[in-house]
Amino acid sequence: MTAAVWAGLSAVALLVLLGPVARSEGVAVSPLLLTTVVALAVAQCLLLVLRHDRPVATLVAVSVLQAGVLAVVPADTSVQGAGLLVAAYTAGTLLPARRLVAAVGASVAVQAAGLAVATAGPGQLLLGAAGAATTTAAATAVGAWVALRRAHQRSELAVAAAAVERESAMARSAVAEERTRMARELHDVAAHHLSGLVVQASAAERLVDADPERAKQAIRDLREQGRATLRDMRSIVGVLRATGGDAPASGEPQADGAPVPGLADLPSLVESARAAGDRLEARWSGPQVVLPPLADVAVYRTAQEALANARRHAPGARVVLAVTTAGERVLLEVENEVADPVPADAGFGLTGMRERAELVRGRLEVGPTGRGTWRVAFEVDG
Asked: Which of 74, 131, 176, 352 has its CA 20 to 30 A from that of 300?
């Protein structure tokens, strides 16, 4: 289609230039010459259908026809077919530099041969060859520049696509990390509350016959503890079910509107543990510290997991929870009496504590103290 359009435009333009325009300038062009030139120009344009598949062959063939035009027109007349310019431009957009230079050289040589037929002297031949070389080289240079721009745009698009993919991968990774964190939250909540429920249920069972009123109170406490457990677990499961983009960040409200617990909630955790039957002593020293959200929840969850482990592996043992603050630093220590220490590499609870410590660049120490106790120490900077 493009070749036909160029052929039509070239035919109309040559008929006008070599007809009325030439006569107005006092130049007479015979009908045979006019027909020959128009036919050669149209043939040039029709060859353009091959320019994308065979750019070199098309440029050379069009140059042969252009040489025919130069050979039949008078020596002092220059007629440039549009097909040659389009073929040269297309070659510039498609060919590498070395092949492009060779193709341009071949085109200029062919055109010079046509000039030699009609040119009377070497001066006119050189001048005509220089003009042909300039025209052809200019068209190929424009094509090469366009090709360079297209390559640059493709490179920019590729870089932009890679950046988008990288950001998407980072987002997917962040969502996965968040869901892993929430899974740890679920484990911590379940371990803490369920271990408390077991202790309270055992106490209620012992009191049923000996002290029915206290047994009833213990059962009521069990019911409240169970409700709290359901609330916490429903909150975390709701986040895990949500889409990645809907998952709240640490410190933001959870699905049921309850905030993620932090350092300020440790007194409530202590009271809950005591209500569950733990022999827990709490010690606080230092000024109030405001931690970043992730570090804040990490302190709380580490204390919660440490208390749950103490209750699970040393029920009824004395536990000491100490929080020391200085500047922007928080040191949490949970130490309990235990006869059979838990291996430092056992269970998801200890793994979760280590992962939380790594996440907030904190320092975690877990293990026996050598004096019959098990100690968890977590230190983090605000």
From this structure: 176
